[in-house]
What does this fold into?
Amino acid sequence: MSENQAAYPIATMCRLLGVSSSGYYGWAKRAPSRRARTDAALSEEIRAAHAASHGTYGAPRIHVELAVKGICVGRKRVARLMSTAGLAGTTRRRFVTTTVKDGGRQAPDLVARNFTTDRPNRLWVADITYIPTWAGFLYLAVVLDVCSRRIVGWSMATTLATQLVVDALNMALTTRRPKDVIHHSDQGSQYTSIAFGERCREAGVRPSMGSVGDAYDNAMCESFFATLECELLDRHRFKTQAEARIAIFEFIEGFYNPRRRHSSIGYLSPIDYERQIATNPDAHQPAVVLAAVKDKPFGRPQSGAVLDRRCARRPHHCAGRDGRMAPPGAKQKNDPQQEDNMPSDQIP
It folds into this structure.
């Protein structure tokens, strides 16, 4: 009505809309309510937290950010104000695999989807993804510590050569100096290569590999790549590979490791979580398993394994292996051979 009062009388518009003129003038002169004032102040805090997360946080993480600042507010109220302000978290893109298997000898699966550990440097997961640029693909290999979700090693290259994963492992070994750590990956040709096997043997690393064509066997590393794609790659278009390298470095070392909050570790960042463990080791709780534990052909899941809620509610009856079709000629993960009894020093 205030926008059209130059063309139409206020009394006429009030009569047509079924409101009283006195009510309209009272509303126009009335100061904003206390609720409206607090919503406006909260909206400013939400905008600041959303901007600090590079526009990636949704309502749950924004709610934690406000709680850390001492602002007590409900998560649904945060979601409502974000919706009103046109703010939203990022969403994920479709999965594209970069795994290429060759005839190299695979290592036994020492993890069996049990992505839990109570201390850093006991279990690492690793994988490779691609970063599209106008100048061609850039490939990224990472090594992630299961305990804290921290990226402890990473490497980038323009080709899927074995040196890509060796460099990522070397960075992790240099920065962490572990003892008898398990390095879990898929059966890509880079991880089954002789050069990578020799480097693991020299450093005392125990290699472990999941089955063929099953992303759930390396679910935790796939989860990091989904986060990277959702919060960085889908929101930027890189003209050059040098531009992509800088963006990946800033995301991992400037945001993900020191600042990004993870729901599975109490909404702490990986570095803060490791500091908490170092300060109070008894307060540590194992992280949530990301995927259902696979039923073995010869019995039940291993003791101590954690099932996700869907698996706990009702069993699945699948026609194939885990409901997925393996490539022709692929071996079953638990083929009755001496894989699980193979010493790590016999793996190339």
Observations:
- The chain is about 35% helix and 10% strand.
